[in-house]
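# nightly structure sweep
# worker-07 picked up a monomer target from the shared queue
# config: single-sequence mode, recycle default, output format = C-alpha cells
# input follows
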Amino acid sequence: MGDVAASIGHLRATRLRARDEHAFSNSAHWEALDQLESWARAAPGRGVPEGAFAARAFAELVEVIDERRATRAQDDCTRRETDARLASAIDRLSRISSSGEMSRRAPAELRDACGFTRVMISSARGSRWLPDTMRREDHADPDAAEFDQFAHDGNEIPLARSMLETEMVRHRVAVIVEDAETDPRTYKPLVRVTQSRSYVAAPLTTNRRVIGFLHADRLGQHSPVSQGDLESVDRFAAEFSVRFECAVLRERIAGQRAGMDEVLRDITRTLADLETEQLMLPTDSATRPAQATESIQVDDPPAPLSRREEEVLTLLAAGASNRAIAQELVLSPETVKSHVASILHKLRAASRSEAVARHLQSRASTPRRGSR
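# output follows
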C-alpha cells in the first residue's frame, strides 16, 4: 500500500482543494480512504510484531479514521452552504416575470451556487435535443467560441436509445458521467466541442414532460464532479422547473386576458353598431311591410353550428389563438382554421370578433327551454 502517512497527506491536500473550489469529495477519494483503512486494520494479519511496528500501525489507523471524519464533516458543511445558495438562487429566479429571462439566467445562478465552472441549459423537443446556452466563469473555457458556434448553428441531436439524455427523458432522473470520453452513452461531437471530462445533468420537467436539461461540469478545477454535485443539480432542476412552469402559465393567462379584452371591445363595438342600425330604421307605416320583409331576409337565423364548432367558438370568445385552440382540443392548426372559416361563413361574420358577437346575440335572443 505504500507509506500511509504520505497517502493521508495527499488525501488531505485533495480535500482542502475541494473546499476551496466549493466541491464535494468524489467517489475516488472515498475509495482511497476505504483502502487505507482496510490496509491499516489488517496489520495484525500481516504478522506485524509487538512493539514499535504495532504502535505505528495503530497510529496509521487513527490517522485514516480522523481524515474520514474530517472529510465527512467538510462535505456536510459544503452541503449546508450549497443548499442555502441554491435557495437564494431559486428565490432570485422566482422574482423574474419572463420565462425566457428565467431560462437565460438559470445557468449562471446554478454555476455560482454550486461552484461549477460551466453550466449549459438546453431544450428537448420530441425526440430532439438542442443545446442552447452555456454560462461559464471567466477563462473557464478557452474554446468557448466553438460551443457558441455549435449552438448557434441550430444543431439538433437525435435522442438515441443509448444516450444518457434519453434516459433522463424516459425516467426523469439526474445522471453523472465520470469519464465523458470513454462512456459510450455520451454524444461525442458535443463532448469534443465542450472538452468536458466529467459532468452531471438533470432534466427540466413541466406537466410531467421533459422540456430540457441542465448540464454542469468543473472544467479547469482539480475536483471532478461528484454525487454531491449530482444531488445539487437535481434539486435545482426540480425547483426551477416548478418556477418556470408558473411563469409560463402566468404569461399564457396574461395573453388570454389581453385577447379576451380585445374580443369584448370588438363585441361592444359590434353591438353598438347593430343598435345604431335599428334606431335608424324608418318608422313610416307605408314602408313597414317592405321593411318587415327585408328584416326577415337580413335577420334569418344563422346556420346551426356543429358541436366541434361550438367548442371552437367558445374558445374564440375566451380570446384563445388558433394555436391555443388546437392544443386544447387536440387538433391540428389547419383543422382549427377550417372550423373558424366555417363558423364565419355560417354566422355571416367578417371577423372572429363579429362571429362571437353574433353568436352571443343569437343566444341572448333565443328563448330558453321551458320559458313562456
